[in-house]
């Protein structure tokens, strides 16, 4: 359509207007789902517990006042990401009336590192896998909210978030039962001694037998304080994509001088992917069965009651068929913090936070353990929202369309800017019209290069996914969490393969006296044009970031789909992004040169673009598809896709921009520079530091 052509000023303006409309309309639609059609209020909150900001989102029903007492759930993400990936889980809980705090852990996203965390770890001894990461601080923040019922607070986290929340639960709940605590009061405050058998008896009965009236009154006051504190500890914890090795096994504690073993005093659940090989044996581990006081593997999706004193466990029934409304034993188990459950879903580790079944399990677990779903479960007037009613993935789809609108607007914007006098030097399209000086790509050569490119993409993603974290390298110069090395590795492998292919065809073309791939690349445009291309690409990225700021301001939405996200960054992160830009630019120049070497002039432009985008996309997608089929046929994954799903979307996006920006600029510089900036933005914004990074003067000076 000529009216929407990039080759005319009016066409560019119309395309830009359409892209801006797509961003606004679909972000608004996404927000309607996020807020459950305006019934949920969402606030961006920041709080400081120990000299470092924690960034979070707070969800609660519209119309909430300080007279309400609502159950609350703290939600957090896994390694190398921010609260954005668990936003769907937060939304589904909020739709059911829960107060939800969705948290970015210390060092992730906009959250800072304190000098010392909850364990007292700092720069000299920080361990990313052995820290609450601000989740205990987040739990204590929720307790300060007047509309939260302090006796009904839950917590859930995915992957490393499950580790962080486990550490928080250890600090908050401990392993002593309420009766253990009361017996220790008798032992420590009243010098009472007990046998191992006696510590299993009721503390109040023991006190009545041994204390006089004054002592009994004092004991009862101490017991009341202890009981109030105990009842306001974390009530329920759900670990997603984790095995709770620091919380699930029995621990040795002292009761009246005797060493005994206890489970953590919290209602505990697990949701594990069937293809998450690190945790699939959880139900049959010796430590698991020992903590359940059984010698047989656990049944899935079945409520258990654990009794540490009697050293027994009892199964009560399926999570979807057994409810505290009818089952008094489950109701009592939840009240006593003795309920346990393990669920498995047919998914990989990375799918846990992008999964209908897992979201269903999450809302059902907290419905039962916190006795709430659109109202009190004990209230006959309450009409619970079915746990299978999950809609957040539609919101993700709307965010994705808005993201495509943002990326799409870069093309007409680039064309409009190159029409200005200042950036006119960046427009080298006249060079592309000199067909005599450009390589001629026939059908056979086109197919051969396409097949080689497909193979390079397949091998590159396969080889990158064989790298093993968390033992991938960490450098202060590139201080991001290990799982983003997969994307860098993929680009490095592709660039290496592309370089080999370019050398081969350069030699063949040179020998035959034909224009070489370097002729198509048009690299020799001069220093000033290159610098202006850099500035132009920076303006394009800035425009994308500005559109993000607009939709965040209006709708509290961002650009994302599953693992791929373009979100806001701290000012200091742009310096980190610059370092990645420097690393990525040479790779993307090589890849862009090969991509645009194959441009056909004897077929429609749309068909040429489609084939160009499809080839590497099919290579990456084929690797994923084989992996998927092998897993679902009962085999072992050929490689680890946990941190690479974003490539399924980023590869076609960057390839499309490579071809279209090349067509409108006449050189590989603008597409390579723009893609390097975009990849750096998405990498740095959507992850966290790999290890402790102290706050800086820049961090302290700027608002964000």
TrEMBL record:
SUPFAM superfamilies: alpha/beta-Hydrolases. Residues 64-169 form the Dienelactone hydrolase domain. The keyword Transmembrane applies. Pfam families: DLH. InterPro entries: AB_hydrolase_fold (IPR029058), Dienelactn_hydro (IPR002925), FrsA_esterase (IPR050261). PROSITE patterns: PROKAR_LIPOPROTEIN (PS51257). The chain crosses the membrane at residues 397-418, 446-464, 484-508, 534-555, 575-597, 609-631, 669-689. GO terms for molecular function: hydrolase activity. Keywords: Membrane, Transmembrane, Transmembrane helix. The keyword Transmembrane applies. This is Dienelactone hydrolase domain-containing protein. The lineage of its organism: Bacteria, Bacillati, Bacillota, Clostridia, Eubacteriales.
